[in-house]
Design brief:
By secondary structure, this protein is mainly alpha-helical. It contains three helices and no strands.
Amino acid sequence: MALILTMTFFFIFVTLVFVSVTVFFPEWMGITGAKAKAIIAAQQEESSKNSLTNEQAHEPEVAKIPQEQIESKDPSSPSENSQS
């Protein structure tokens, strides 16, 4: 009988601890609370503002060759950049 009462008390205690932690610290239990949702929204806005700037800043400069020059090259002739 003592074992049953001890296990019941332990179960109730652990359940109360879990509920209180869930209410006061929902992020610890994997629950996204209002505060976390606000932080996520702010980070998404910030990243969307910076994504275009970052893409432009890190985009490598590539020489643009007009299509006419590409089509007019003879594939059998050696490349101008080849080293012999």
